[in-house]
Design goal:
Blueprint (H helix, E strand, L loop, with lengths): L6 H10 L5 E5 L4 E4 L1 H7 L22 H7 L4 H4 L4 E8 L5 E11 L8 E6 L23 H21 L12 H14 L5 E4 L6 H12 L7 E5 L5 H13 L11 E5 L6 H11 L7 E6 L3 H7 L4 H7 L2 E4 L10 H15 L6 E2 L1 H9 L5 H15 L4 E2 L6 H11 L10 H19 L4 H8 L3 H10 L2 H6 L1
Parallel strand pairs: 6-9, 6-10, 7-8, 8-9, 11-12
Antiparallel strand pairs: 1-2, 1-5, 3-4, 4-5
Length: about 475
Amino acid sequence: MARKPSTVAQLAKTLNAQAQPIYVLDDEAALVFLNRACREWLGRDAEGLLGTTAAYHSAPEPAGPKAVAAALCPPPQALHGQPCSAPVTHVTPDGRVLKRRAVFVPVGNPGSEPLLIVAVLDAEDLPAQAAPESAAADVAPLADEREAEAAELHERICRFRREAAGRFRADRLLGDSPAMRRARRQVELAAGTRASVLLVGPPGSGREHTASAVHYASDPDRVGSLVPLDCSVLEADLVRETVRALASGEPLGERSARSTLLLNHVDQLPAEGQGELAGVLLGRSFPLRLMATAERPLAALAREGSMRGDLAAGLSTITIELPPLAERREDVPLLAQLFLEEANARSAGQVAGFTPEALDRLDAYVWPGNLDELAQVVAEAHRHAEGPQIDADDLPRRLQLAARAAARPPRAEETIILDEFLGRVERELVRRALERAKGNKARAARLLGMTRPRLYRRLEQLGLLDEEGA
């Protein structure tokens, strides 16, 4: 007697017969099934996908199953048992971007973590769009407005990374503020030359990251090494020996002509070290490209006398200015979503975005540590979050204290004029002495420890004789 086909096999056969692409994820967002239509849509990229985790992030992967799985990730609401819909994107090996809407259906007991998540895609690709200003049109409706906003931020980050991946590694250059648009133009200009580049900005603003973006975008196929040198901790003789070793070309071999020396914190280099650098770096035979980071433009430091003029000019052919985060507050929601998705990529916990209250608190903070501090705050909040979104209570306590302090305006400072204050004190003491002496000035003078003529002079100077006469 022939064996009856198993229920799993029958289900797989039914799903394979569907014209729409369908895939299934387990409770940890690992891909466990792709039907025939889904494998055909993905093409050869479908190979090796089974068992790969589709985490909710937009971290760029050059190729392979992880890159494909990241594009198929469901919104975290689905992992918390909530049906939802969102677009999924597949970038083919020849660079075409295919996008379809997907409905994610959790399977399991209502109100609990799902056992499986079934994703059903539209039968046809969405029409290509010419990089709209807002991705709101690309995002299918979610349960409420705040979830749709998080999905829009996710889509904008994905699109930015797709567009920027071919030019430079520029995650920290994400943003729509005028300052960041200008910085991206400066990075593209610098990437097209071998001229020296100075990156100016406060600590934590992404100076080293931007230097890396310029270096690797210059000639991706033939790029050499990026050699960082921290000028804030090296003594002058160590700077001299290191730079001379690099000038010989021996440590880097044939790649030296395509390598870059990155002088971090060059504005903190003492005068002796500046002389050593100028003597070696500004020579025609130095084989490495030069980049440097500083908090202020070197030309301004040269005018103040704290930086050698020739060294400042030699390192500042192209200057890229990175603003503090407090001056680009419109970019905070997008950057916070970026760091949140990076935390998703590192962790099993998946979070979709931020509540409006959490975003308001992020916007109100002054961010003295700039991008680095924002990344740290989001990572800490991600660890504390228990639901699909980060709430204001998940944020570190220092942000809560800062919000309370901002709600209380500081008291106006009261200026104390010493002579007037001492004059009022002396008037009061003299009055009390006269009251105790019942108007007897000789006795009042003894109470105050002064002579009677001196008391008369003080009464006259303080204008109290007229009051006595009255």
